[in-house]
Fold this sequence. Notes:
Blueprint: E1 7-16, E2 20-29, E3 40-45, E4 50-55, E5 60-66, E6 73-78, E7 87-92, H1 93-141, H2 147-188, H3 192-200, H4 205-208, H5 210-230
Antiparallel strand pairs: 1-2, 2-5, 3-4, 3-6, 6-7
Amino acid sequence: MTDRIKTQLEANIVESNTKRYTVQVKVTEKGTNKPVKKGKVVITTKKGRLIGKSKVEDGIAEVTSSITKKDYNLIITYEENHKYTESTTKLKFKKQYMFYKTSAYLWASIAIAIIVLIYVTILNTYFLSSISSVINTIAQNSLYLEPTTTIILSSIFKTNMNVIGVIINLLIWILIISFIIAGVYARDVNPKYHSIIRKNVTNHDLFKHFIPIVILILIFITIVEVVLAYII
């Protein structure tokens, strides 16, 4: 009886979104790296739950599964047959999946922060120029401006300046921290997952509602600015 040929596996996530993912398994002969022509690949979780099965065709097998549980420690097995031996490898999908989800939220927060920063700057420029114009108008048309009125107007002006400073500083720090985190992920995670994110980011629930979320944030900021400018 002829000795069976030893095999080796290489598994990767080749497609991923918030609902499904695909595992591609390359099955080759150990030592020669020639593709295994036939056989079957079985993927299970660490706890033994079956993820899926697929036939090997010219050294490649792909299994697509829905994301239903948070158990992504996958065990990939090429089943032995009359010609080839069994081989096994592991794939921790959780890291890649969480990278995808985290990155989606991360880049959304960066985009929102930039939009809000620009909007707040424009909005406050308008309000401050309006307040300054009001003060000048009162000064030009009044023979005498009560000290109390001057103090109130100055207080409003200073309050708005302080609020602008706090909001802008907060947004700048959000941007700095977000870019640092993004850089760490880009360095530590395989770059191929960036293409996965780009291809599937539109499927993410957050991005489906991105524009309404931004509009609501801007409306809220506008209301706060109006209150600060005309009520305080």
